[in-house]
Design a protein that fits this description.
36% helix; six-stranded parallel β-sheet; alpha/beta; single chain; binds 2'-O-acetyl adenosine-5-diphosphoribose; 10 helices; 8 strands; elongated; 251 residues
Amino acid sequence: MENTISAALPLLRQACHVTVLTGAGVSAESGVPTFRDVLTGLWARYEAEDLATAAAFERDPALVWGWYEWRRSLVLRVQPNPAHRAIAAMAARVKLSVVTQNVDDLHERAGSTGVIHVHGSLHTPRCFACATPWHYPAGIPDEPEGGRRLAPPPCPRCGEPIRPGVVWFGESLPTAAWQAAQQAVRDCDVLLSVGTSSLVYPAAQLPFDAAREGKTVIQINPSATHVDAVAQLSIAGKAGEVLPHLLGAWA
Ligand code: OAD
């Protein structure tokens, strides 16, 4: 790991614009389970992919809304970790864009601004039918350990159920966020892909687009991914350890 970190430094120091693409691995060290972690409690017999669809919500809105409320309560209770803080601090060293697949707000709470959320946010629910935005009551929901079924609130405008503000499987990414993410890849010299399995398209294509356009791709992930094929460097380690190390040695 030390060797690859040393090799990454000159690439970062030469860059005018770095785009960081983050996935669930960046929030893992805050205590947010990654998407592909096994579900527990009420959801133990489901795969996350089976709950994160419009069809699942239509079939059983209380199951899906309960799952997202449980995730939201978990996210509200945890704190940004050294990886989020190191990414925020990088903005003082280089022009930085942050593109995240995460639906939490831990980058923002660590101090990053202008974060591009290509998969939406747990904190911006809207009506399932008419898309009117809805606002959660203040405070942290008191979710029981194993979670619970919970009927979604009705839309005050049309009475249809409120849905989470995240992108579900089979849905298009929000146009403005996706265009901004693609632009951030076109504009950068270095694409840093951190803590993502790079399995879910179209977000997973961004490192491949970057490589095709001649950008330097650096990956930080304890496990191998398809991005290894195009990364100039793959740093095998945890984001919360590698990123502070990189930042400390960057100056
Ligand atoms: P995944 O859960 O697919 O992958 C998490 C990645 O993080 C894996 O490659 C792990 O090896 C890595 N990882 C785990 N701990 C880490 C650590 N401490 N530091 C660095 N890396 C670590 O999550 P995503 O790639 O974000 O989409 O998943 C992409 C999308 O798939 C999600 O946004 C979600 C899901 O379906 C939607 O909901 C639309």
